From TrEMBL:
This is RNA polymerase sigma-70 factor. Belongs to the sigma-70 factor family. ECF subfamily. NCBIfam families: PRK09636.1, sigma70-ECF, SigX4. Interacts transiently with the RNA polymerase catalytic core formed by RpoA, RpoB, RpoC and RpoZ (2 alpha, 1 beta, 1 beta' and 1 omega subunit) to form the RNA polymerase holoenzyme that can initiate transcription. Keywords: Sigma factor, Transcription, Transcription regulation. It comes from Streptacidiphilus monticola. The lineage of its organism: Bacteria, Bacillati, Actinomycetota, Actinomycetes, Kitasatosporales. It comes from the Bacteria.
């Protein structure tokens, strides 16, 4: 098997590692491409192509994350990872675990770790790499990696997100939620939301966004039940789609361009949080992106025109 075939076989795994370290689809794709260039240029065949490529993409991702952390500290408003529509790495035996590890909530928790801790946690806890492989990938001793793993696990366990274990029940709840959303059924929405539900938007200063988090079933239901039918009135559509392994949707404008994504965290038969990604710079991989300011202008004008 040639280099190109080897790389193509491992590409889903490489992307999945890079995305969990970086929280960015574009940066993860760039890291994978850089790993390919380094592999293609190498003159020796590694003993294990998988170990070599995973180590390369991990080190690239750590370097990128270190430079990205300062940008995130200066980010306008809440920062969310770029929405992932589908994880290319599949392992049927661990599908639920892998989906939870790529959830928005889990990725936000990973943001609390140092780049090295994050990389070690992803390789060891998510992808079950042995410590010799982890040590080789991050350029540290096995003992140092064990210590990094302990610290990372402690941080993650302290705030580890929980999700509805029954996928069918979770998806049924999401179906009812989007049906109530389309109908503007405020009471129906209230019954599906946890009492302390929160709704937060990431616009990054590049799109109109919520001035602050909206909390409480009554406030969130009233806002959603008012705004989404009005958005439908100007031609926007809400297309249910898994976002980061959890129920969600893509909102498109009258030309089918992406306005935002919406992701739900579901637990104990209720929606616990709703996260909106509105920053157009984070949506390009989903499809052609709408002008959020134009959508906002048309929406405001339609509201003013109502009797």
């Amino acid at each position: 098997m040639g280099k190109a075939e080897d790389f193509a076989r491992l590409r889903p795994l490489l992307f999945s590692i890079a995305y969990r370290i970086l929280g960015s689809v574009g940066e993860a794709e760039d890291a994978v491409q850089e790993a390919w260039l380094r592999y293609e240029a190498s003159t020796t065949q590694p003993a294990s192509t998988k170990s070599f490529l995973c180590a390369v993409v991990t080190r690239i991702s750590i370097d990128v994350l270190r430079s990205a952390r300062m940008r995130r500290e200066e980010y306008v408003g809440p920062w969310f990872p770029e929405p992932l529509l589908a994880d290319p790495y599949e392992d049927p035996a661990r599908a639920a675990e892998l989906a939870d590890s790529v959830s928005t909530a889990a990725l936000l928790l990973l943001e609390r770790l140092s780049p090295l801790e994050r990389a070690v946690f992803v390789l060891r806890e998510v992808f079950d790499f042995g410590f010799p492989e982890v040590a080789s990938a991050v350029g540290r001793s096995e003992d140092a990696c064990r210590q990094l793993a302990v610290r990372a696990r402690r941080h993650m366990n302290a705030g580890r997100p929980r999700f509805e274990a029954d996928r069918r029940a979770r998806d049924e709840l999401a179906h009812r939620f989007f049906q109530a959303l389309r109908e503007g059924d405020v009471l129906g929405l209230q019954q599906l939301l946890a009492a302390d539900v929160s709704m937060v938007g990431d616009g990054g200063g590049k799109a109109p966004q919520l001035a602050r988090a909206i909390r409480g079933a009554d406030k969130v239901a009233r806002l959603l039940g008012t705004v989404f039918p009005a958005l439908a009135g100007i031609g926007l559509t809400t297309e249910p789609h898994d976002i980061n392994g959890q129920p969600g949707a893509i909102v498109r404008d009258w030309d089918g361009k992406v306005v935002q994504t919406l992701a739900l965290d579901v637990l104990d038969g209720r929606i616990q949080s709703i996260r909106l990604v509105l920053n157009p710079q984070k949506l390009g991989h989903v499809g052609p992106v709408a002008d959020p300011w134009e959508v906002s202008r048309v929406f405001r004008e339609s509201r003013r025109a109502q009797p």
